[in-house]
Amino acid sequence: MTQRNSVTMNDVGFSIFNEVLSRQECELIANRLGNVTNGRAGARNLMSNAAVSSLANDSRLISLATKILGPQAIPFRATLFDKSGNANWHVLWHQDRALPISNCVDSQDWGPWSTKSGVLYALAPASALERIIALRIHLDASTDDNGPLRVIPASHRAGVLSASDILRTTSKTQARSCVVERGGIVAMRPLLLHSSQKAKDNNKPRRVLHIEYINALELGEGIRLRVA
User: Fold this and answer.
1) What is the biggest distance separating any 2 CA atoms in the chain, rounded to whole angstroms?
2) pLDDT values of the chain reduced to their tens digit, one per residue, 228 residues
3) What distance in Å separates the CA atoms of residue 128 and residue 16, rounded to the nearest whole number?
4) Extents of the domains making up the chain
5) Fold that domain 9-224 belongs to in CATH
């Protein structure tokens, strides 16, 4: 595994690792996923998929996650993003705050609550989100032409941001595009401001498997993450 054009996670909230998986491994995973998106822009709750679960627990990914989180990294959620000519979308600047939860509790720090694809979710406080790292596995190369991930470096340091804070931050800070080779991984903090534009080239699909890790499923106040 090589790391090129990388940045320090502790400084800016994301890092790029190229050549983590081989081209053959990417093709195999994509084939095993089949048509889970059914023509949509993505698919949630994929940890029950055998291929995804196996990859999430692969020693290479666990090693990356533990270097950031500490001695324990538990994969708890997997989502496939499939940007193509049939599903080409623009994602506004945002933070990833919703987490899958096993049971609803009355807490001032959590919520509002919602249900997505049959799974209970709640917006989480910064104290919980700081314990999470997402690994975005690129099953296809991410280029300047197929709507790559864009980030605002170090924006996660400000904690949970309001809509006006997000607008102010993104208007005055230069974004960085995460161009990644096939088989590469972007490690990203959930509170890092990120977005993506529509792909310019519809002939270059961009499939990204987004797997999230945490150091423990128990989050206090009787709240436990659900594996989804």
Assistant:
1) 48
2) 434 434 446 689 999 999 999 999 999 999 999 888 776 778 999 999 999 999 999 999 999 999 999 999 999 999 999 876 566 678 899 999 999 999 999 999 999 999 988 999 999 999 999 999 999 999 999 999 888 999 999 999 999 999 999 999 999 999 999 999 999 999 999 999 999 988 886 667 789 999 999 999 999 989 999 999
3) 23
4) 9-224
5) Jelly Rolls (2.60.120)
